[in-house]
């Protein structure tokens, strides 16, 4: 064997040893004790992005000037806080279950089936893991650091948050109009229409005084109207013509506080959106009948 060949072998062995050493040091730095994995600490105030990238779909939540978005839609701040709180939960436990890459496919943490979970803060990815199958008896989730072959079984509330679909991450609040700011409501159902308005300190509908308790209950629906779901993003968006119903919520001097448009979604539900807005929500027919009834039950 020539000296040149021996030098090449020595270089290859040196590189291999260096890579092994780096991986060993990384694992030791992220293990509190043998057989466990410590999730890197995250400053929640500086988190810019949370992502779950699956082979079939991707969920990316990003911090925006007006709040969080998820896949381009308004995101639920509560869901973001839920995940970050679960990630930082001190009761999280991990246990080493495998160290060989040969186990990755069986545990679902390979590139074909695994879900990549990342958290970015300050322009840097501070957490980068591959999530796999649920553990025995559906307890916990298999997980490995993306730069490591060792696989752990992760226990904690975060394992359930990982399973939440896109709908759980999206903001379900349609409108939030305080009842005291409402001066009138105009409803159209097909060709029929009616109006509720405040006049001289009392509420009037159809020329008659309305029951104040019923009016307060009716107006309270606009303080936190929440969707039951959303259209399938893989399908064409619903068409809002012709409209089945409309509801205009007016403030002082006739200012439009909210204008809702409804079309039949079938299956006992309606699609609803704020006029001029692109986000479409799903509401059960029973809820729509309370918000936009053909004939209001507001009189004493």
Explain how this protein is built.
- The protein is of the alpha+beta class.
- The chain has 2 domains: 32-169, no CATH class; 173-291, no CATH class.
- Helices cover 22% and strands 35% of the residues.
- It has 7 helices and 19 strands.
- It has helices at 3-29, 77-87, 104-107, 158-161, 166-169, 212-220, 285-291, and strands at 47-53, 58-64, 67-70, 73-74, 93-98, 115-121, 124-134, 141-145, 151-155, 173-175, 184-189, 192-199, 202-205, 208-209, 225-226, 245-250, 256-264, 269-274, 281-284.
- It has a 9-stranded antiparallel sheet with strand order 4-3-2-1-6-7-8-9-5, with no helix packed on it. An 8-stranded antiparallel sheet has the order 14-13-12-11-16-17-18-19. A two-stranded antiparallel sheet has the order 10-15.
- Mean pLDDT is 90; it is low at 26-32.
Q: Fraction of residues in helices? A: 10-25%
Strand order of the largest sheet: 4-3-2-1-6-7-8-9-5
Mean pLDDT: 90
Rg for CA atoms: 28 Å
Report low-confidence residues grouped into runs of 5 or more.
26-32
């Amino acid at each position: 064997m020539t000296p040149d060949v021996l030098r090449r072998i020595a270089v290859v062995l040196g590189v291999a040893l260096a890579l092994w050493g780096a991986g060993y040091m990384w694992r030791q730095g992220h293990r509190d004790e043998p057989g466990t994995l410590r999730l890197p600490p995250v400053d929640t105030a500086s988190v810019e992005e949370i992502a779950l990238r699956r082979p079939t779909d991707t969920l990316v939540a990003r911090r925006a000037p007006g709040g969080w978005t998820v896949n381009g839609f308004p995101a639920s701040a509560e869901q973001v806080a839920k995940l970050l709180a679960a990630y930082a939960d001190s009761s999280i436990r991990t246990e080493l279950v495998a160290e060989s890459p040969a186990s990755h496919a069986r545990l679902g943490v390979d590139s074909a089936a695994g879900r990549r979970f990342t958290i970015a803060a300050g322009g840097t990815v501070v957490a980068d893991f591959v999530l796999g199958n649920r553990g025995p008896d559906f307890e916990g989730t298999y997980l490995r650091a993306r730069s490591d072959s060792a696989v752990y079984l992760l226990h904690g509330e975060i394992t359930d948050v990982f399973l939440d679909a896109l709908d759980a991450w999206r903001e379900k609040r349609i409108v939030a109009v305080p009842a005291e700011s409402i001066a009138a409501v105009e409803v159209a159902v097909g060709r029929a229409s009616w109006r509720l308005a405040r006049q001289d300190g009392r509420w009037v509908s159809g020329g008659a005084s309305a029951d104040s308790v019923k009016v307060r209950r009716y107006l309270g629906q606009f303080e936190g109207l929440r969707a039951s779901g959303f259209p399938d993003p893989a399908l064409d968006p619903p068409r809002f013509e012709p409209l089945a119903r409309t509801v205009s919520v007016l403030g002082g001097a006739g200012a439009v506080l909210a204008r809702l448009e409804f079309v039949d979604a079938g299956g006992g539900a309606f699609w609803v959106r704020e006029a001029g807005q692109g986000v479409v929500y799903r509401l059960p027919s029973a809820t729509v009948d309370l918000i936009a009834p053909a004939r209001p039950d507001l009189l004493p």
